[in-house]
Amino acid sequence: MPRDLTQLQLLTELEPVVADNLDRHLATAKDWNPHDYVPWDEGRNFAALGGEDWEPGQSRLSQVAKIAMITNLLTEDNLPSYHRTISEHFSSDGAWGTWVGRWTAEENRHAIAMRDYLIVTRGVDPVALENDRMVHMTRGVHAPDDFHGVLDQVAYVTIQELATRISHRATGRVCGDPIADNMLARIATDENLHMIFYRNVAGAAFDLAPDQMMESVTKIIKSFAMPGAGMPNWRRNGVLMVKHGIYDLRQHLDEVLNPVLRKWNVFGRNDFTARGERSREELGVYMEKLGRDVVRFEEQRARILAREAAKAEGRDPVQV
């Protein structure tokens, strides 16, 4: 029976893959400037500088767009926690360290652009936004107790980056503003490139330590939660975003999990021992259950939306 590789062995063996994918990323990624995506001519002073403070009528965003923008921005704001977690599981040296620094710098642009846009256009209450930022960053983000090592990390961030890409794109579409849509499309492109980097490293990890990686993927998928979990009003805001298709269970299954698992050939591999096979079977059972849950979720959402539409039109919702 093959023995497990230590974290040091995994980091050492995977470093050439990291270096190759770092070079690919740097050759592919396009530099961009957050200030180019903000309509600065809409900006004006707030009361502290003799202007006018925010009031709800100044925002052009729908309630769904506001909540999605705030949720996405606060998620990006917790970058220090993510940097710390990734650094702890990867390395600050060599190609690993270069990637962590580059990834952090690119992610920071997302929060800069989104916040500047929201403040300049007065899309949301800036005081409430700042209060929520303080709360969310003070709490920080902490990995679950059973989250250990580089394999868990690359499995998680592959899924998380793809999920974040989808959330940003959907948010851009509901904003009703081509400037916001263009900005969030630019951010989503970054997230997609990050996902490809992590997905490729995870794929190499499957070849290097198939049983260990299979166990990590199964654990991460079964316990997956977006990094924004725990922010103020997370549950209430999340329900509204799910209801309006910003990021829901169907997207999670069809646009995130299934494509990634196919890319890794998880259900077609033949290099697992009995240990890896058990973990793959466990994941297969979970995915089947998730598929059934998606159908129930969509049926329930359709009923809720139909009742709301009937109520808005003055019809009897019981007949819907």
Automatic annotation (TrEMBL):
Family annotation (CDD domains): Acyl_ACP_Desat (cd01050)
Family (UniProt): Belongs to the fatty acid desaturase type 2 family.
Protein name, per record: Acyl-ACP desaturase
One record GO biological process: fatty acid biosynthetic process
Pfam family, one: FA_desaturase_2
Superkingdom in the source lineage: Bacteria
Range of residues in the leader sequence: none
Cofactor: Fe cation; Fe(2+)
Swiss-Prot/TrEMBL keywords: Fatty acid biosynthesis, Fatty acid metabolism, Iron, Lipid biosynthesis, Lipid metabolism, Metal-binding, Oxidoreductase
Any one Gene Ontology cellular component term annotated for this protein: cytosol
Transmembrane segments: none
